[in-house]
Amino acid sequence: MASELRVDKIVPVDGVPTGGGGGIIQIVQVTTDQQVENAFSSETTLLTKSITPKFSNSKILVCVNCCGVGSRGTGTSFSLRIKRGSTRIWAIGNYGGYATGSGAEAYPSGMYLDSPATTSAVTYTLTGTRTNGSDNCYFNHMNSTGTGSQAGSSMTLMEVSA
Which of 13, 37, 104, 129 has the largest CB neighbor count within 10 A? Predict the structure, then answer.
């Protein structure tokens, strides 16, 4: 006969810290190794994932790790942003290229603790936009081709108890 233990909440011995959380409730993740290179003249979706919080007072920790990000020239910048729905909530940074036009390999990452205040599904998106210049920009670029040769990027969403 199997035993089963079920709990609704675990609170640390000293209580939940102000503005902090007591633990991870759920985790979801999206990954891609698809290489993208183009003008990025308008905001382009690179990663998107939804999470449905179990509690309205939970926070969502958004963790983004990217590989092979940049542009083909020094006068061109490529900007990465995190959005909740259609609202920009965090900027990861701007990435430029080398004068040779060969591209620069940046490996940006970022984290943001969000408070969506809902138990409805919330969609988070990583977007890329060329912010100045006219050279192509790229995402998941590794200077090689073929299956498995591109870099991998991920976005992980963690529901954190209040």
Answer: 104
| Mean pLDDT calculated for residue range 89-114 | 81
Instruction: Look at the block and give the residue holding tokens 């939804």.
Output: 50
Distance, in Å, from the CA atom of 37 to the CA atom of 8, rounded to the nearest integer, reads 46
Q: By three-state DSSP, how is residue 88 classified?
A: strand
Residue 18 contacts residue 162 (beta carbons within 8 Å):
no
pLDDT at 7 over 80: no
Do the Cβ atoms of 38 and 64 come closer than 8 Å? no
Q: Which residue has the higher pLDDT, 57 or 3?
A: 57
45 half-sphere exposure, CB direction, 13 A CA radius: 11
Contact between residue 18 and residue 122 where contact means Cβ atoms under 8 Å apart: no
pLDDT at residue 75 in the model: 85
